[in-house]
Amino acid sequence: MRSRYSAFAVGDEAYLLRSWHPTTRPPRVVLDAGTRWTGLEILGTTDGTAFHSTGTVEFRAHYAEGGRAGELRENSRFTRHEGAWVYLDALTSG
What we know:
Elements: H1 2-10, H2 13-18, E1 35-47, E2 54-65, E3 68-81, E4 84-90
Antiparallel strand pairs: 1-2, 2-3, 3-4
C-alpha cells in the first residue's frame, strides 16, 4: 500500500498499472497533476503476511487540490499474483 501511495505522490503511472491485478486493472491510469498527495495513514490491516495469499489495508490518504485539503479513505483488497502483492479492488462498506 505504501508503495502505491508513493507512486500516486510522484506520478508513477507505470508502477500503478504493474501493481494492479490484471482482472481489475484499467487500460491506463491518468493522474491529476493538480493533486498533491500530502500524507498516508494506515488505519488497519487483515492478513497479508508471508503465510497469506490475500489481505486488506484500510487507509486514509491526504491531499491538496486547488488550495483545499481533502482525504481519500478506502479499505483496499490485495492478493498475490505471480508472487507479488497487487491491488485487487476496494471493499465497499456495508
